[in-house]
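Table 4 source record.
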Amino acid sequence: MNKDGTPVVETIALTKVFKDFWRRDRVTAVCDLDLRVEPGEIFGLLGPNGSGKTTTIKIVLGLLYATRGRALVFGRLPTDVSVKNRIGYLPEESYLYRFLNARETLDYYARLFQYPRRERSRRIDMLLDMVGLAAVARRRVGEYSKGMARRIGLAQALINDPDLLILDEPTTGLDPLGTRRIKDLITDELRRRGKTVLLCSHLLGDVEDVCDRVAILYGGQRRAVGDIQGLLSRTELTQITSEKLGPGTVERVRDLIRRLENKDLLEVAAPSDKLETFFMRIVREAQEARIATSGVAEGTGVAEFLRRDQPDQEGEILIKDLVSAGQQAEPDGAAPTSAPAAVVEEADAGVIDELVGASGADERSQAEPEAAEPAPAPVEPEADRAVIDELIDAPDKEDDRSA
């Protein structure tokens, strides 16, 4: 989070024009776009298909270059490598390695941020529990459904505990349980920790539930921007909610409004829950009844490292790893002990090869000095010389007999 008040994301007259093979202007995807996403804000980017939302996100990520204008992330250009480790990104399509399983996928992304092995394993376990994929963590992601792929995609976007989380259609393909999980994560944990979220979605109900401000794009241009409550409020109407009233009371209220305000009571109706709220209540009741299901398990809550107010102490983790390795090392002359099976299974193949190569080199270095010492010249005994002479004379004797 920027403590100096610098916007986390800022675009200034941002324009992107795609050209054809002959370098002629073909499509203007974004046109003179001005946006500011403040620290700790949950910002929604809305618009119909082809309005420039994904193009804007790709420019902010440094995946595309602007034709004119500029975009800044944490006050720096998107191409600045120093901002990359502060960003988490969930693209519209989950581009995953099909032949890796969920654990291997998350381990790959964690290695990009150079986390030590123990910290990688800890975060992977927590994220798999959080997104409800712990039971299928050993399955190849190529076998996952679209909803399951979105869940593992969300986990990889959170593996580095980013300051800026960019979500492009995060709930596409998710069931209502997964959708609710993502919205709770954004509104409860990420907002509490001052994280900044840039959310792009066609599901307007999701945006309304979680976003502080929204911008609506059309034809690559900004058509509206502001606080979501201010944009949606109907200032020309007044809504009154009370407990259930009888028909006679409603008529007296209607007459009172006409007499005092010279206005009519437009609607009297019982309020209703959202379908999502009703759905979640039915599912929760089924879970409490312990009804079996073969679907995705419900997550166990937000990963612990995402709930901490302080960033990870990577130096302390590395020191603990080194101390642990030193305690496991065998003293000189001691009998070697076998490592636990789990440790051997997780050991890096490259490290093992290096250690094996080093052992072989040590054995060769110990053997070479002994072989390098010149051996004393053998003393040829007289008996051996007699045997040699007899063997040399043997062919001559055979020739005499044959003659």
